């Protein structure tokens, strides 16, 4: 490219260097060349070296390389791999959620520890247990590895039935503290990951309840809050409307002079039954019988309308359970004697849920007949009748029955605890069972007027035995509401914590094992053997490398040959846990499993086959929510 300057000279603007003879002073040789017609000569540009990529390079340099194949292709590969990986992870997550069984809720994963609030711990030295006292003992539940606690009635009530003649469902009885104390206890429990189950008494109220006071005066809607019937009352004597009896054997009717009628009470006369059905009670039964257990209770217990009420309560609880992790459970008490089909109705029907479970009181019958076959029959009674997919529960004691120690004795307390904590479902131990507390003798103590009690359940409600200190460490009062057991200095928590072979040590080891081993808290249970001395069952889980054979001796010392009775059973098994600590870790031959009187064994083995997959055991195996274990990913799935 050329351009003329103001003097008419030609100047080269390209990469060539030009010489203007009018402007530049040339050497003689150069002048000769210029004059020969070579006025311009091409001079090459100096070669500029491109910089390589480096950290912090500017945009211009970056763009020089980003489009090159060797940089572009890896970048695109990484991008698409990220997309594919994200889709695969999302798909895998969805698949895992779809095939995974439902996680166990809090009321399934832990034992439900029953405590009687008047007798657990006294914080203000008045001789009566209270809410603040319970709060001071929360670390004990952590020690036991128990995360659910059921507390008996603490509502404002008269003292006739110690919390079960409720005067106000919205107030805490002052003997236990205040509503603030209750809220503090609840907060402290939640801080430790503990759950609280409150006792609720919907059957009746106290005759001092405002509802009853309004009802006896025919006040508006309260008129029919209770079951009233005309009865003949003359000169202090009452002829009841029928022959219905209380659970204590006397007439279930009592005359109220203010209303001029009799009211119905299934329990004490200070506990009038609420009229949930709002219809006339059926006419008196024909038979004139004096024993409550001999009557047919077609009109006084387990009415069909009751289940409608429970379903409505379930709906209310479900409304409060919508927040994640805040599930509200409901358990029911049902005393249906031998009519277990009625008990099972409390689970609800297909698609209509009622209670999470009705409390299972059938094992309390062992009081009069503790032997192996009876244990098997009572366990099977529940499992064989429970609706499919529901969750069982087990208890051998509560505040209304005699303590296990009183009828089983110290020889059998550990094996009974092993039964509760290795069966499928939720065990519900009663406070003190973990250390082997016994009934008290009320005739020799300082109970608060036990003569006014219709029955004598207080023998199983003595103060918790914490230590060998005065009053077993329960209270600093000079007088407790009911006597402390005389053997508290040798049977208490403090002493047993230091004894590896104690009842407490066995109980705690069982709760820890139950939590740790999947087959024990959500696997199959299969009955494999029972005779007059031994009851045996297996806990197993598909895909899990370990299974457990539970051997429980409820009779006399014996040697059991399971090898010949169960072909293919491993010849040797390992004692994972026994009621006798000195045997833990030993190997036993399944052809001769020796157990002493009241001894229990949890035998661990590696199964080559599973009992629940064999036709022979089809009707002897149970599971609530089927699950299989995938060891590669340490997860459970249900499509197995």
TrEMBL record:
GO BP terms in the entry? amino acid transport; carbohydrate metabolic process
A cellular component term (GO) from this record?
apical plasma membrane
Q: How does it assemble?
A: Disulfide-linked heterodimer composed of the catalytic light subunit SLC7A9 and the heavy subunit SLC3A1. The heterodimer is the minimal functional unit. Assembles in non-covalently linked heterotetramers (dimers of heterodimers) and higher order oligomers; the oligomerization is mediated by SLC3A1 likely to prevent degradation in the endoplasmic reticulum and facilitate heteromer trafficking to the plasma membrane. Disulfide-linked heterodimer composed of the catalytic light subunit SLC7A13 and the heavy subunit SLC3A1.
Mention any Pfam family matching this sequence: Alpha-amylase
Identify the keywords attached in UniProt to this record, alphabetized: Amino-acid transport, Cell membrane, Disulfide bond, Glycoprotein, Membrane, Phosphoprotein, Signal-anchor, Transmembrane, Transmembrane helix, Transport
Q: Where in the cell is it found?
A: Apical cell membrane
Q: Does Lipid metabolism count among this protein's keywords?
A: no
PANTHER family associated with the record: ALPHA-AMYLASE FAMILY MEMBER, NEUTRAL AND BASIC AMINO ACID TRANSPORT PROTEIN RBAT
UniProt region (Disordered), positions on chain:
27-52
Question: Per UniProt, what is the membrane topology?
Answer: Single-pass type II membrane protein
Cite the Glycosyl hydrolase family 13 catalytic domain residue spans from the record: 114-485
Q: Record's superkingdom?
A: Eukaryota
List all membrane-crossing ranges.
77-99
Q: Provide the protein name.
A: Amino acid transporter heavy chain SLC3A1
């Amino acid at each position: 490219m050329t351009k003329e300057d103001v003097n008419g000279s030609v100047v080269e603007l390209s990469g060539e260097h030009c010489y203007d003879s009018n402007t530049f002073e040339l050497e003689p040789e150069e002048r000769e060349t210029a004059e020969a017609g070579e006025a311009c000569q091409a001079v090459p540009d100096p070669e500029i070296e491109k910089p390589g990529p480096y950290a912090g390079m500017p945009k211009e340099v970056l763009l020089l390389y980003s489009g090159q194949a060797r940089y572009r292709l890896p970048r695109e590969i990484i991008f698409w791999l990220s997309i594919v990986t994200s889709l695969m992870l999302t798909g895998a997550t969805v698949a895992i959620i779809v095939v995974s069984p439902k996680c166990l809720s809090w009321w399934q994963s832990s034992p439900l520890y029953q405590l009687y609030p008047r007798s657990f711990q006294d914080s203000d030295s008045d001789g009566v247990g209270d809410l603040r006292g319970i709060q001071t003992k929360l670390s004990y539940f952590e020690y036991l590895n128990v995360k659910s606690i059921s507390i008996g009635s603490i509502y404002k009530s008269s003292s006739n039935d110690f919390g079960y003649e409720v005067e106000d469902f919205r107030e805490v009885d002052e003997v236990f503290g205040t509503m603030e104390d209750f809220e503090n206890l609840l907060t402290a429990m939640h801080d430790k990951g503990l759950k609280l189950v409150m006792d609720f008494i919907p059957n009746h109220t106290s005759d001092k309840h405002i509802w009853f006071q309004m009802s006896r005066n025919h006040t508006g809607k309260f008129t029919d809050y209770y079951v009233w019937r005309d009865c003949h009352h003359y000169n202090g004597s009452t002829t009841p409307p029928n022959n219905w009896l209380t659970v204590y054997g006397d007439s279930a009717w009592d005359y109220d002079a203010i209303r001029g009628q009799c009211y119905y009470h299934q329990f004490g006369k200070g506990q009038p039954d609420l009229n949930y059905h709002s219809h006339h009670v059926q006419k008196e039964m024909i038979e004139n019988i004096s024993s409550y257990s001999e009557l047919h209770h077609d009109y006084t217990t387990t009415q069909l309308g009751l289940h409608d009420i429970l379903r409505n309560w379930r709906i209310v609880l479900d409304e409060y359970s919508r927040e994640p992790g805040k599930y509200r459970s409901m358990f029911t008490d049902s005393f249906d004697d031998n009519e277990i089909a009625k008990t099972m109705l409390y689970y609800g029907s297909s698609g209509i849920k009622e209670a999470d479970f009705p409390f299972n009181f059938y094992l309390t019958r062992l009081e009069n007949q503790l032997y192996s076959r009876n244990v098997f029959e009572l366990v099977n009674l529940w499992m064989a009748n429970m609706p499919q997919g529901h969750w069982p529960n087990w208890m051998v004691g509560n505040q209304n029955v005699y303590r296990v120690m009183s009828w089983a004795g110290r020889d059998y307390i550990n094996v009974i605890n092993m039964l509760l904590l290795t069966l499928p479902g939720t065990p519900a131990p009663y406070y003190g069972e973990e250390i082997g507390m016994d009934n008290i003798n009320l005739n020799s103590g300082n109970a608060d007027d036990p003569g006014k009690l219709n029955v004598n359940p207080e023998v199983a409600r003595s103060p918790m035995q914490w230590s060998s200190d005065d009053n077993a460490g329960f209270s600093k009062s000079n007088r407790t509401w009911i006597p402390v057991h005389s053997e508290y200095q040798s049977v208490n928590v403090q002493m047993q914590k230091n004894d590896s072979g104690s009842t407490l040590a066995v109980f705690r080891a069982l709760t820890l094992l139950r939590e740790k081993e999947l087959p024990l808290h959500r696997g199959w249970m299969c009955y494999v053997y029972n005779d007059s001395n031994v009851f045996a069952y297996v806990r197993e889980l598909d895909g899990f490398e370990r299974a457990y054979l539970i051997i429980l001796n409820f009779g006399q010392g014996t040697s059991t040959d399971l090898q010949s009775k169960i072909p293919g059973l491993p010849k040797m098994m390992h004692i994972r846990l026994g009621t006798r600590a000195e045997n833990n870790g030993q190997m036993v031959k399944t052809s001769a499993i020796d157990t002493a009187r009241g001894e229990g064994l949890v035998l661990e083995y590696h199964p080559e086959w599973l009992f629940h997959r064999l036709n022979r055991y089809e009707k002897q195996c149970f599971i609530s929510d089927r699950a299989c274990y995938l060891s590669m990913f340490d997860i459970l799935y249900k499509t197995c």
